[in-house]
Specification:
Length: about 450
Amino acid sequence: MMKFTDLAEVRFGTGISVRRSGPKDVDDILRRLQSRDDMAARHPIDEFKEVLPVLWEIRKLQKVRKEKKDSPEGLEALTTVRDLRKTARDNQQHFLNAAFRRSIDTTDGFRERLTRFWADHFTVKGKTDILRNSVSTYVEEAIRPNMTGSFGALLKAATTHVMMLNYLDQATSAGPNSKAALATNRGMNENLAREVIELHTLGVDADYSQTDVHELAKLFTGMSFTAEKGFLFRPYFAEPGALSVLGNTYGSDTPKMDDIYAVLDDLAVHPATAHHITRKIATHFVSDHPDEALLTHMVAAYTGSGGDLLATYAAMLEHPSAWAPTLSKVRQPFDFVAASLRALDIPSEELLKLDWKRTRALLNLPMRVMGQNWENPTGPDGWPEAAEEWVTPQGMAGRIQWAMSAPALLSPALPDPRVFVDSALGGAASGDLRFAANAAETRAIGIGLILSSPDFQRR
């Protein structure tokens, strides 16, 4: 049976480490989560505010190129644009590298796991220029700083972010009776409104109507951005008049951003949102089929605190079913690779030495083979949770291939498999796996067998 510390690191953290001490109890997990974010300081990732000036510079250079064409000035502008785009692509690999380094070095694994969870809950993909390479900067700016406050604050930060507006085509959405629509025949886009209701708050099975989606889409009109200024609210695009969403009235003849904040605040504390969010958290961390008593306890904490996320996490962590000894969840590819690096005690400095090409070859592309294309999920619903979605022939082949080859390329000296089988699994290794670890012909084979085993894949 696993010790509390080891189970906490496996189920709620980034994996067991021989170098770093895990939490001793639930209070310790929460205390670490509320402490200073050391990993963000040690392994920095740019915030989105650092991307916008580059995007604006590209826009200005594109104008020069269009006007000057093949003149020396025009060609220089073209070269500079290409260089800026290459830097953005390289940075995307560096940010992935930093995310792994955080997972290796952290003593606050729950924070890293929450970052990945909420980034997935509020999935975005960039559609425009270097925004395609800027998801990590959105997570660093909108998600990571807001995971321990109210869900309403997190919801507002994500919903109004430039990356979300870009991903769901909100920036040019105009209300049917807005000045923009009447003057230019612009249309309204319901993507953001639909995803906010169905994915981010109430859930697809909640009691709402398509009229609610349509009215919320009207209320969202006016939210936009430019490369020069970032987020801005454009009254010219906004739908005027009173609008009804879930029986509540918002808006006026003078549209304003406060109306949007108000509806998001109300959605955040809606009873359906409490059920949807708590089930999703429990499903991600505890079980694909969480215990109903656990869910009831979490809903009560969420509702009673007005959507306070720390109170919700505490309710999950203090419930006995969160600590059931059976490991039924399957680590997603990022979590699997991160836990492997941590178990192998590979110094984060070794990862820091990897340039973008090696990062792509050893970390990014293998994850893609395993079924998780970094920052490129198939839709706004993010990555699947069900174990069977990850335990596929191709996905498992990718995990085995990585486990058999990558450790030796990343670590100058592999550990003894006979020792590693216990240090990596905290006593959860089966008899068959122990036998295989002891019988392995080489250290590389033994390590590969342990990392690719069902025992290590589960959490």
